[in-house]
Each structure stands twice: as structure tokens, then as C-alpha cells.
What does this fold into?
Amino acid sequence: MEPRKILLLFGLFTAFLNVIGQEPPDRKQIIIVDPGHGGIDSGAVGINGLKEKDLTLKIAQAIVHYNKVLLNQQYDIYLTRYGDTLISLGHRTKLAKILNPKIFVSLHCNHADNPRASGLEVYVFNGAIRKQNETMGKIMDSYLQKQLGYRSRGVKRANFQVLRDNREVCPALLLELGFLSNKDEAMHLEREEKINALGLAILMGIKTIME
Ligand SMILES: [Zn+2]
It folds into this structure.
């Protein structure tokens, strides 16, 4: 056989080995963002009439938007709902079981009888979770505090279903993004630029966690 043909065959053979031995091309990290409530479940209603279900969806949409325009779709972000629909808590975590995300972030707004209660809260599951999940909560908490200048109420532990059901699947955080029962915070959340700032800060918080 001509040396050129041998070389060609050798080249094809190596190319073949490369193909069969190759890892699939780098998959993007999957993130699930869960806008709390929806449909007939409005969640908390603010003193100014703002509904938690609308705010959580707008913040989630801002996260998706900034992932596209600022991060060039760095993450594959899935929402548990894309419209004003009621999705059961069980179905929200079922999505996580199917997609196997790097993190599940549930978005909520707070309400309290005390009209002066204010600030952000980050929740992790109150049972056994990996240390990594708690660290993620702390990173998110300090990131949001720094970026938004909100008062932080700290990382808390609770037995919320979306946290509990995800404990075997992926790290999960539940964010309470201000009190709708607090006049200042409810008015703050009326402004589109504040919603966008929250979405951006959460996205960059996730990015910080992933790095
Ligand atoms: Zn809620």
C-alpha cells in the first residue's frame, strides 16, 4: 500500500477512535427556577394589592432574560411554570427528578402580621442535607444582601415540601424576597427595575454558587 493511503487509513482510524471514546460535548448546567404559587393560588397579597404569584413569575422571567442577554445562555434554565397556572408542589419537584438540575431555586415573597417585618430570607431543608446545600444558601444570602442592600434575615431551615422532596435529587433553596405586608418593600416590588434587579442578583448569585 502506498504510504499516502496508509497515512489516510491511519488518520481515519484515529478519528474513529476519537469519536467512540469521546465524551458528549460539554452539557450546559441545568437550573430549575420555581416561581411560587400560580393560578387560583395567589400566595401572599400585598397591602398595595400586589400578588406574590405575579411577582415570582416576573422575577423568574427576569432570570431567564439575563441568562440570555448577559450570560449568552450559559445555563439551561427551566421554570416550573411559564404562565399563571397552578402547579402542584409534587409536580414541581417531579420536574427536578426528570431534569436532574445542579440547583433548584424556589421564589417566594413573604407576609407577616407585623407590618414592620422586613428583609430577605434564604431557606434550606431542615433535615439531613449535604453540607454543599447549606453553603449554597449562605453564598446566595450574602450575595443578595451585598448586591441589593436588603436586610438579610439569614439562612434558615424549614420543612418546606419543595426543599424536602428535592433532598435526594439536587441542592434546593427557597428564597423569600421581601415582605408584601411591609409598606416600603411592597412599594419597592411595584417597580419593574427592582424586579429586574432581583432577577439579575439571583442569577448572579446562582453563578457565584456554581463557580
Ligand atoms: Zn409563597
Remarks:
- Helices lie at 3-21, 52-69, 89-99, 131-148, 161-164, 183-188, 192-210.
